[in-house]
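Changelog excerpt

This revision adds worked examples to the README so contributors can see how folded entries look when concatenated. The first example is reproduced verbatim below.
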Amino acid sequence: MRNRALLALVMVAAAIFVFGVAGLIVSGMQDPVSDFVAAPRGTSAPGGPQTLQLRPVSSPEPSPASSPEGSPDETAAAYFQAWVKSDYDAMRELVEDPPDDFADQHREFEDAALSKSLRITVGDLVRTGEETAEIPFTQERDEQDAGTWRFDSSLQLAVRDLTWKVVWSPSVLHPEIQPGGSLVRTEPDVGPLRPVTRGGREFPQDSGAEAYLDNLVSQGVAPTTGVAVGWALEVDNPGMPAKTVLSYKPEKPPVGVRTTIDYAVQAAAARALDGVQRAAIVAVRPSTGEVLAVADRLGGRGAFESKYPPGSTFKTITAAALLGNGLSPDSTMECPAVYQIPFHRAIHNYKDENHGTVTLRQAFALSCNTTFAQLTVERLNGDTLVDQARAFGFGEGEGDGALTCGSLQRPEIPDALAEDSFGQGTVEATPLCMALVAAAVESGEWRPARPLADEAPQGELQQSKPLPSNVADGLRSLMSAVTVDGTAAGSGLPQGTAGKTGTAEDGQGGQDHAWFIGYRGDLAFAVFVEHGGTGRGAAVPVAARFLRAL
C-alpha cells in the first residue's frame, strides 16, 4: 500500500511538470507582429526610428520535439525593423542563402524609387506548414510629385538548420520583379525647347528678336535636345517588355524656355519698325530691369552690342551731373546760337538757333548744345562727367558674355569735354544702354538689364545704383518738358510720355543717326534709327507708333 501511494504521488508531480513546460513553450510562440514606419530618409520618426503597433497573431503550436530557434514572428519583425532603417547587413543575416548582390539590389531599387519616406504595414502571419510561414505586408512610399505609392508584397519564411529564416526573392521588393529583374526610372521628354515669351507664347512672326533667341540656344540656355517632362517607374524583367508601375506627368508640360519678353510689347515694337530700315527698339521694365522687347533691324545683336554716338540723349547724363552740382530745373542760363570755348573751338546749336535766356528745363527741352557745353566746361570736369556716366551703366558689361552698355574716354581738354557733354566726341552707347538710362530716370535707380532668359542671369554681377532724389526728380521734370513743349511736343506720343530726342553725327560724314529715349509708366525704351536724320523726324514717330500699340 505504501509503495502504491508513493507511485501515485510521483506520477502527479510528473504531470504537473510536463504541462507547465508545455504552457511556457506555447506562450513563448505567441509573439506579436508590428507595423513599421520609416521617417523621411535620413531622419528619425517621432518616438524613434520606428513606431510599433501590436496586434494579436494566432498560429498553430509547433511540436515541442522539433521546436526551432526563435519564431517566424521574431524573424519577420527583425527583418522589417532593419529594412526601414536601410540596414542591409542586418537584413542579410536573417536571409537564407542571400544573393551576393543582396544589398545592391535594395540600393538600386531605392535609387530608382527616390522615395522621400517608407512605411511598412505588416499583416497577420499564416503558417503554411510546420516549418514554413508567410506574412503579407504593404509598402507606402511618398514619391516626389506623385503622392503616396502603395503596393502589397509578402515575406516567405522557413526553418533552416533549426532557425527561422527569410526565404528571399526580388518579389519582396516589389511583387512584379522576377529574378534578374529590377526597378528602372525613366524620364520621357518633349523634344527640344525654343525660347518663348514670359507668358509661354511663341514669339510674333518677324519679331526682330530672332538673333537673340538663337544666341540663347547657342549659349545652352535653351536646350537643343529633349527636355524631361515627368517620370515613370518600370519593372524590367529578363525577356519581358517593361511594365510601368508608377508614373507622373505634369498637368501643363513646358512649351519652351521662358524669357522676360512680353508678347504684346514685342509685337508692338516689331510692327513699329515695319518699313524702317536699320533701326532698333529696346524696351525694359524700370522697376526690375527686365527686357520686355527687343526688335532689331540693325543685323545680328546690334541693339545690345553695337555702340553709336548717342547725341543729345546723353544730355540726360550731363544734366544729372549738373543737378548734382548745385543747379535745379529752374536755374537760368543762356542758350546762344554759338558758344565760344575760351581759347578753343566754337560750339553751335542745331541750325544755329538762339533761344536767349532759358531755364535748365527749357535748355534741355529745346536741346541747346551751347548751354550744355558752356555749363559743362564751367562747372564740371572730365572726372565728374565720367563718374556720372558710370552711375548710368557706362563702362559696365564689357566682360565676356555680358550685355554691352556704353563708353567714353576721360576728356583731357575743354573741346573734348564740351563735345562729350552733348553725346559726341568719344561717347558711344548701345540702344540697350540708353533704354536703361531712361529707366533709371523713371524709377530713380539704375538697374542692369535682366537677360532675355530667366535661366541665364547675364550681368548679375552688376549692382543697381540709386540716383540722388533731387537728381531723379529734376530729370523727370526735364524729360517731361521735352514732350510737352520741347523737341518731341505735338508728335503723337501718348499722354504721360517723357523722353529726350537725339541727333548724332556718325563721324563718317554720312547722314545723322536718330534717337529717342523715354518712359511711360513702368516701361522705358530707346528707339534708334541708323542714318535716319533727326530724332524728332525719324525716331519719335517710331516711338509714337510703338506706344500707341500697347
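The second example, added in the same revision:
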Amino acid sequence: MRLQPRQELLSVWKAISRWCGSGQAFSWGDRSGRNSISDAELLLCLLLPPTKLPGIRFDRPDETKPDVCAALASFGGAVEIPQRVVRLIGEYLRCYTDPGTGLPEFSGGSYLTTAPDDDREPTPEQLALEVVDSYATSVVLATAAIGFLRGYRPQVQRPSHREEIDKVEVDARKRLTAAMAGLQRSFTLSVFRGDSRAGRALCETVSPEEGYSAELVARIRNSLTDVMAGLRELGSSADEVETLLENRDLLFECGWSWGIVQGAEPVKTPTTVYAQPGLAEPYPYLYFTVVAVDGIRDLFSRETRLQGLLDEEQQSLARILNLQWDLAQRYWSTIATLGDDRWPVEDLPWRTTDEEESDYYSLLVVSLVRHALLDQGAPDSDLARIARVLEDLADRGRIRRRPLAADPALKLHHPGTWVALVGADLAGSDAPPLGWRLGELGTLLLGRALAVAAQANDHRLRARLLRLADEAWRHLERRRLRDGKGAGLWDEPANVYPTLPRRGTPSWYHTTRAMQCMGTAADLIQGVPPPGSMLSDIATELLVEAEDVFDEEQLRGSGEGGPALRDSLSRQAIGLRRARRLLPTRPGTAAALTLDVLRELDKLAAARESEVGD
C-alpha cells in the first residue's frame, strides 16, 4: 500500500507543530478562523492517531519514542507534550462553554455560509446556531480526550497537575453528555405520501424504470417493516409513527437534520435538562446523517466499552442513540440496495427526495451501505458492487481521470456542494439563507475504499480496492500545501486542478479527514489479511508433504542420532508447528517455512543416500 500511516501521521504532526507554534503561543485558527468544530478537529489530529497506533502514543513520557518527540517538538519534550495537550483540551472546553448557563455550546460558526450567489454575510445569531457536525465531532473528541486523560493520569505525581487533569475530565464528560443529548434531539422522521413530490422522487430513485406506482410503494414499505417497527420503540413522534404504520400510501425517511429539530422533546438527565428550542426542519440530511452515524459509532467501539469511558448518565443516552443509529443505518442501506438486479446506489448520481442529485450524495450513501454490510457480514459479491461504485465515483470525480475543459466535476472539490439549512434563516428576521458546504470528496473516497478493503475476504477484490486507495492517496498527496508554515497540511486542490483558486492556508476540516484515513489504513494493516484460496491450497499440500517426510525420519530413528541430527530435527519440528499455526491466516509465510523444512529434510536424505553409495 502506498500510504504508510506511521510516517505520514508523524509528518502531519510536524506540520501542525510548525503551523500552531510553541506551547506558549499556540495558534488555533485555520483558513476559516476558529469555531467549535475546527478547534475540535485540530485536537483530534493530536488525540486520534495514538488510538490507532499505540507506538506513537505520548501519554506515557517514559515510553514516548524519539521520533514522536521530534514531531511535536514545539510542545516541548516527552514530559511537556502531554502536559500541553491537557491544557489545550481544557482551553477548548472553557472556550466553548456558555459562561451564563455553564452549558457547552456547539455553534457552527465560520463553517456556516450563505449561498454561492449571495454576497451577504451570516448574522452573529446565525453563526451561533448549533449543528449536528459539532455534536458528532464533540462525541469523538470527548471520548478520545477521556481515554487520553485516563492513560496519562497514572504517570503524574504532582498533585496540582492531577487536579488539573481531573477538572478537564469532568468538563469533557459534561461536553460528551450535552453532545449526546443534542444528537438525540436532532434525529427526525419525515413522513410523506407515496404520490407526493418527495414520494415520487424516492420511487424513481429506487426504480428509475418503473417510477411511482402503488406496487412499488408497497414493496418499499415491506422492505422497511423492521425499521417502522423500530420507530415505534423511540417513543417520540408516536402519532406520526402510528399514522405511518396504518396508512399504506405513506413513505418516510429517517436520520439526522442539521440541528435540533423543531418541536424536539427535552432530554432530561439526573443533572441537567436539555431543552434548547429547535430550529431545524424535521427532515433528514444525508451529510449530517453520515456524520452522526460515524460519531455515534465511537460510543459503541471496543475501546470505549473496555475502558468504561461512559458513565451511567451517558449509557442511558447511548441506548437511545444506539436505536436511532441502527434505524437510520438500516433505512438508508435498505433503500440503497433494494432490488435483485441493479441497486439504486449503483445508479449514479444519487437523487434525494427534494430532487437534488450529486455524486457526493452517492458517496455518502455508500458510507451507510458499507456500515450495514459490515454488520451483516455481507458476501464479497456485495462488496464487489460497492467497489465498482467507488471506482466509478473516482472517475466521475476526476480523482483518477484528468478533468475536461470547464469540467463541472471540479465543483465537487471547490467550492463544493452547498446545502441549504432550512430554518437557519431565522424566520421573521433579515438574515440570509444559510447553508453548509460539502467538499471532502477525495478523503471520503479514500476512507471508504480502505474500509471496504478491510471487509473483503477475496484477495483479488482486496487488491483491487487497495489499488483504488493508492490512486486516491496519490491524489490527496498532491493536494497538500507545498509552501509556508502550513506545508504538509491540507487542502490545496489547485495543485491538482490549476483552474481552481489557490487557498494558501490549511484547513483542519480537510486535514482531520486525511488523518482519519491514515487511521483506517493502520487498522487495515494491523488486521488479518484474508488468505488466497489458491495459495492456501498450495501451502496445505506442502505442509502435508513436509509432515509426512518428517514422520518418516522419526520412524527411521533419526531422532536417536547424534547431537547435530537431533538439533536439526528439533528445529524442523518447531518450523512445522509454526507453519501449521500460520496456515489459516498467512499461508504464504506458512509455505515459506514449510519449504525451508523440506529443504533441510532433503539434505538428511541426500546425506544418507551418499553414505549408502559409498
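Reviewer comment on example two: The beta strands are 112-114, 187-193, 250-256, 267-268, 273-274, 350-351, 357-358, 417-420, 434-438. The mean pLDDT is 91.
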